Amino acid sequence: MTLLQVRDLSVSFHVGERIVEAVRGVSFDIAKGETLALVGESGSGKSVSALSILQLLPYPMARHGAGSSILFDGVEMVGAKPEILRRMLRLIDEIDEVREPVKRMLREDIEFVIRQLSRESENDG
């Protein structure tokens, strides 16, 4: 069973008039119980790819390409709303292989993103 499916992941950062392409066309699958190592030179996009999965990039400065897709347990993460990220928090808590300090760090980061998205929703509506 595929737990994580990343397809054609592209990420760019928009700073003023400048656009920096950090990741282009990355695709991979991870089945439940599998481990994947992202290996590459410094600046090759490993961290940006990983942070994209949990939507922890500095949005809206960071943008995903039109065809980018990140499915976690069948749920699209690109552009995920707060309720989807809350579901992600529950799933992380259920993974026995993840140590508690890592779970705590992920919870804090995801809760921060949820608060930011909730504020944006309040300001839009």
Can you offer a commentary on this structure?
The protein is α+β, with helices and mostly antiparallel strands. It folds into two domains: 79 residues, no CATH class; 45 residues. The chain has three helices and five strands, in the order E-E-H-E-E-E-H-H. Strands 1, 2, 3, 4 and 5 form a five-stranded antiparallel sheet that branches. The termini are far apart.
List the helices and strands and how they pair.
Blueprint: E1 2-15, E2 18-31, H1 46-53, E3 62-64, E4 69-72, E5 75-76, H2 82-94, H3 100-124
Antiparallel strand pairs: 1-2, 1-3, 1-4, 4-5
Per DSSP E runs of 2 or more residues, the count of β-strands stands at: 5
Oligomer: single chain
The mean pLDDT is: 86
- How many helical stretches? 3
Q: Helix coverage percent of residues? A: 25-40%
Which structural class do the helices and strands define? alpha+beta
Write the H/E string, N to C. Answer: EEHEEEHH
Tell me the span between the first and last alpha carbons.
39 Å
Query: What would you report as the Rg, rounded to the nearest angstrom?
Result: 15 Å
The largest β sheet comes out as: 5 strands, antiparallel
Strand content: 25-35%
- The backbone outline, from C-alpha atoms, is globular
Number of domains: 2
| Uncertain spans | none
Write a brief caption for the model.
The chain has helices at 46-53, 82-94, 100-124; strands spanning 2-15, 18-31, 62-64, 69-72, 75-76. With 125 residues, the protein is of the alpha+beta class. Strands 1, 2, 3, 4 and 5 form a 5-stranded antiparallel beta sheet that branches.
